[in-house]
Amino acid sequence: MTMQRSAFLCCLLSHVSLALSIDISKVQAVNKVDFQPNKHYYHTHSSGALYETPVLIENVLSREECESICGTIMQELGDEYVSIQRKVRYLEDDEIQIETEIAEDTLMNAFGYMFESHHDDAFFCFCEGLLDQYEGLEKVRKILHNARESLFVNEECQDRDIFEYFPEDIRPSDCVVIAGEGATSTLHRDPYTWTGTSLCLEGTKLWRFIAPKGACKPKANDIDSRVHEIDEALDSYRLPSVAWDDDLYLSAGWQSDLSLYVSRSDDIPSAEEFASLEEHNSEKVMELMDKIALDVDRLVPSADILHWLSIRSIDDSPTIFTCIQKPGDLLVIPASWWHQTYALQPSMAIASQRGSMSRDAKRVIEHIFDTTGLKIDKLDLPLVIQQVLNGSYTGEPETIVNALFEVLSSHT
């Protein structure tokens, strides 16, 4: 494996110089007790443009709470069959090749495979809706829900989630995500253009984001349109995600077959080496992981991405944001930011989402209308929907959802 990896790195040498011009910044991090949505996540430019940036909220749950949740999930769901993705990398004619296999096995066995994983033979498991199926997980569901929503709905902020009022059969659900060392998620941006969240329960997760052009210094309210430049550059395609009828989907995400982690330097410690080091100096481990996350010469993106990013960074930086997520940390992910994870250690996390009243409701409605192909004059829409779209609505989230699905029922 080492010879293959070294050979592959050699074939990328012509692209390494491109990495030097790429500006990478750390995602802002804030402790749970200090987090304020309107300060750390929601932003308004002096021009009036609205935008959001990723934020890592630390210590949302304690280590003990995370361990308890992991134990309960494995106890209740360990015998459930799930789909396990295995990616094997090999070198052929000086080009890296990836073979992907999908197998069915129990969640307990899947978790075991994660400890056999490494960069060139990696295991990943994404289990959507699994937590909703068992009464024995009601307490876990409540803890996870409160951990997320208490950050946005409290005495200082009442930014409620419209998805809570969606019909149960199409309501977005939490996902259990487990990854072995070297495993990556797909490079993607989310369906519904929602606000994504990820709560790490075990291990660590390395994240990289591609910021929409001008996202951190917008001069006009066009962040959503600018992200389409990235969609095109990444040769993205759409993935329908929520069925409204047999042949009609309400949402579709964006995905790319390129990667922000196509190769890995041999000097990056293994998961076992990280675990050994952590026993003696956990702070040093986090410092080392931060350095790796910021270094595109050690975790190397696809050559096409390097080339595109190096050109873009000339007049619009920073381009990539990154962070290391540890147990108890919750990451908030803006709608238009492409992102991908990499596992330096085996990990378990809960991926979720919310449709905030303040920012997401308008985007979600527009996304649904666009995905379904619904063509209707704004003046013919219910007043509630008109107000959401023009930013003047101040009522209840349930009223928005009721009006939305009345429109869908009568026009699709």
Radius of gyration: 21 Å
Q: Which CATH architecture of the largest domain?
A: Sandwich
The CATH homologous superfamily name of the largest domain equals Cupin
Fill in the CATH topology of the largest domain: Jelly Rolls
* Assembly type: single chain
Rough outline: globular
- The secondary-structure class comes to alpha+beta
Count of helix runs: 13
Describe this structure in words.
By secondary structure, this protein is an alpha+beta fold. Residues 1-17 have low confidence and may be disordered. The protein has helices at 2-11, 13-19, 37-40, 63-77, 107-113, 138-149, 223-233, 271-280, 282-293, 303-312, 360-372, 383-390, 397-411; strands spanning 24-26, 28-31, 42-44, 50-52, 55-58, 81-92, 95-106, 121-128, 175-179, 187-189, 195-202, 205-210, 237-245, 248-256, 263-264, 299-300, 320-325, 330-333, 338-342, 347-354. It contains 13 helices and 20 strands. The protein has two domains: 2-357, Cupin (Jelly Rolls); 374-412, no CATH class. The termini are far apart. The protein has a nine-stranded mixed sheet.
